[in-house]
Amino acid sequence: MKTIIRVLLRGLSVVALGAIMASLSGCDDPQVYGSVGVSSGYSSYGHYRGGYNSGVRTSISVGGRIR
Amino acid sequence: MKSIYAVLAVVMLFVAACATTNINVPAIEGVGESTDLPGKIVWHELLTDKPQQTQRFYTGLFGWQFEALPDKRINYQLIKHQGKFIGGMIDQTQLPTQADISQWVALFAVTDINLATNKVKESGGTVFTPPTSLGDRGDIAVVADPQGALFALLQSRGGEPADVKGAPATGDFLWDELWTGQTDSAADFYRSIAPYEQETRTFSAGDSPVIYQILSSNGRVRAGIRDNPFAGAPPMWVNFLRVTDTEELDEILAKVEGLGGEILVPAVPRPGGGSVALISGPSGAGIALQTWADGQTIGDNKVAK
Fold this sequence. Notes:
- The complex is a heterodimer of chains A (67) and B (305).
- With 67 residues, chain A is mainly α.
- Chain A is 51% helix and 0% strand.
- The longest helix of chain A has 24 residues.
- The N terminus of chain A is likely disordered.
- Helix content of chain B is 20%, strand content 38%.
- Chain B is built from five helices and 16 strands.
- The chains are: A mainly alpha (67), B alpha+beta (305).
- At the A-B interface, helix 1, helix 2 and helix 3 of A face helix 1, strand 6, strand 9, strand 11 and strand 12 of B.
């Protein structure tokens, strides 16, 4: 599990750097949410599906609203 | 990792300098019904790199409708559910990035966005987008808390949508929850940007207790903060949609993969009753589904022992 996450995080670092380069080229046609895109590569748990699929599915407590 | 943040901060200066200021996004439905409700999560934005598939996915699951804005520069569609606008969808492919950034972003109401943004900076958080006008929508800032969880601040023009007594419709947003490794310091941070009251609860999940912080404002519960269930995963805000019962949840989950999504965590019972599941749409943006019965009380911040 830890190994998978570490690999994923390393991949995200590369992705973030790629996003930075892409954002600079976007200045000619600015988008109001463009900066959201650059910043958010770290936070999407959709990126962590490898972790979810690694035998931990049924042991996860997702939480949720209490009241 | 810190070096990347530093580079990001520099780049943000460039992006901010390029930002347009004449964008006009409609006000959130119901704005003006109430006085300011700082701390209320008033909106959710979905970033997706597969907008058409994503539309089909959520329409198939919940019957959501999507309405594009006339201003094509924004690449933005309003999400309508049972006659009410509940969020927005942004076509990520039109953004100046090629990274996979698909995800949901929660917008927190604040009364003074400059003050709140400064609090983020002073507390060690990151300001990715400084306060920026979205026209009728108000002023938005995109930030991350000191642990790195991404969210947005919104100062609406003239109050927030009023709190309602009943539960949201099935398929509407029910809850927002921060997964982080430092619940106490996270709670302190969010209390610094909005007038939250904090309540700490502990419940069992397997062999270990889960510390759960509940944030309330103006007499209503607003969000939760809990230990990150995925050790090593970065902190993140997780958004919950309501489904009525486990039968409906099973029916929805049965459609997920056929519509191009993925079941990340299948339906599991919650300590407080009901069930919850975690899914992702075609773009990989994750969202949780939680059962909440029609007659189940909701919203007040009375401590339930």
